[in-house]
Design a protein that fits this description.
The complex is a heterodimer. Chain A is mainly beta. Chain A has a domain of 87 residues: Immunoglobulin-like, CATH 2.60.40.790. Chain A is 11% helix and 35% strand. Helices cover 0% and strands 36% of the residues of chain B. Chain B has no helices and eight strands. In chain B, strand 3 and strand 4 form a beta hairpin. The radius of gyration of chain B is 19 Å and the shape is elongated. Chain B starts with 26 loop residues before the first strand and ends in a 15-residue tail after the last strand. Classes of the chains: A mainly beta, B mainly beta.
């Protein structure tokens, strides 16, 4: 028998809380990348982007990707991340019970909201989360203008 | 790997109980000749944020991410949230839960559960009479 999701230790299947748990699990499954309900979509990392007064901050989920397999470039106002997620595990005979992770190469480009100083961009990968900090160019930084009272 | 419920004193919670809301880590599971291997994607989770327990042949993995750097400024794009990962699996047969190896690398948890000896394929010699 294959591995099956565990339904819980001591809850009879009829209680409301277990119904809620089951519904949660269903939605979780539906929306998570763990299952792709509409066929095989191409894989690319999920990203969060935020902008502060002096920098643009990009976070991307890249679990299992070696930082040296990443290629990050900034051309003009476009940030491009290229990478490849390879199946790094032992190459021996194996029987799969479950394949939910996605592998393959991806390219993602983002239009940056402000001009950034390409020379000062830093990128770090930690625990499968990539952080790219793109400091803005001096002229693109928000400046607070004092209003003088007369 | 303790058989009793391993209460995490530091966080004051039982790791086998699912958190209020959680993400299901995408998991690959495969079987080799001598072990069952699980690869679970848990980006943002450091080794000390991981709990792996086996009790009554139920494997529970739980990961709490290190709270990332605060997203300062305006959010322009939000495609993922940071939260706990949780997943439980019923193990199909007796695995040697004493010898489970767990490691985490680049946000991917690798669990290796060796098969107990009686599950391993055995060649039976046929003797000629």
């Amino acid at each position: 028998m294959a591995l099956v999701p565990y339904r819980g230790r001591n809850m009879p299947a009829t209680t409301l809380s277990s119904l809620r748990d089951e519904m949660n699990e269903l939605f979780n499954r539906f929306w998570s990348t763990a299952s792709e309900p509409f066929g095989l979509a191409e894989w690319s990392p999920a990203m969060d982007v935020s902008e502060s007064d002096d920098a643009v901050l990009v976070h991307a989920e890249i679990p299992g990707i070696d930082p040296k397999d990443l290629d990050i470039s900034v051309v003009g106002d476009t940030l491009t991340i290229r990478g490849e997620k390879t199946d790094e595990t032992e190459k021996c005979e194996r029987n799969y019970h479950r394949v939910e992770r996605r592998y393959g190469s991806f390219t993602r480009s983002l239009a940056l909201p402000a001009s950034v100083d390409a020379g000062k961009v830093t990128a770090t990968a930690k625990q499968g989360v990539l952080e790219i900090r793109l400091p803005k160019k001096e002229e693109a930084k928000a400046k607070r203008i004092e209003v003088k009272g007369t | 790997m303790s058989k009793a419920i391993d209460v995490d004193v530091e966080r004051g919670q039982d790791p086998t109980v699912p958190p209020e809301s959680y993400f299901l880590p995408a998991t690959d599971v495969y079987e080799t000749e001598d072990a069952l291997v699980l690869l679970a994607e848990m980006p943002g989770v450091a080794p000390d944020g991981l709990d792996v327990t086996v009790e009554d042949n139920v494997l529970v993995i739980r990961g709490d991410p290190v709270s990332g750097a605060a997203e300062d400024g305006d959010v322009l794009l939000k495609e993922f949230e940071v939260g706990s990962f949780y997943r439980a699996f019923q193990l199909p047969a007796d695995y040697d839960t004493e010898k489970v190896e767990a490691s985490v690398r680049q946000g991917v948890l690798t669990l290796r559960l060796p098969k107990s000896d009686r599950l391993k394929p055995r060649r039976i010699e046929v003797k000629a009479e």
